[in-house]
Amino acid sequence: MIKIELPKPDLVIRQREQVLKPGDVEITPYHGFIDFHKITRDKGGIFFFYNEKNELLFVGKARKIRQRIKKHFEDNVSPLQNHRDEIFKIEVYEIEDPMEREIYETYAINTFRAKYNVDKVFFE
């Protein structure tokens, strides 16, 4: 048996209300996330979407993580298009090697049984 261990996430962002102090500038939420700007622009990796109950909704990979996550919130062909309002937490893992990304994504989808992944599913 092959043993795969996922790394710790490099970034975790959650939907939350913005608390402003005097002199603070309001950040426009991006689908409820105000820390979206912290997701790396130019690095590759994988990402996990969770709901408020901490159930895994979707696992994805990308050469440029922020752009790909944004597409899931904007695209009409995303498997999440009818479930975007369920996303409460996003975990981001920076993984530059494309083969490692592929392995981690497939492993996570099947081990944690991501609810809305349809490709690479080996469980029923």
From TrEMBL:
<dbReference type="InterPro" id="IPR000305">
    <property type="entry name" value="GIY-YIG_endonuc"/>
</dbReference>
<dbReference type="Pfam" id="PF01541">
    <property type="entry name" value="GIY-YIG"/>
</dbReference>
<dbReference type="InterPro" id="IPR050066">
    <property type="entry name" value="UvrABC_protein_C"/>
</dbReference>
<dbReference type="InterPro" id="IPR047296">
    <property type="entry name" value="GIY-YIG_UvrC_Cho"/>
</dbReference>
<dbReference type="InterPro" id="IPR035901">
    <property type="entry name" value="GIY-YIG_endonuc_sf"/>
</dbReference>
<protein>
    <recommendedName>
        <fullName>GIY-YIG domain-containing protein</fullName>
    </recommendedName>
</protein>
<dbReference type="InterPro" id="IPR014527">
    <property type="entry name" value="UCP026568_excinuclease"/>
</dbReference>
<feature type="domain" description="GIY-YIG">
    <location>
        <begin position="42"/>
        <end position="118"/>
    </location>
</feature>
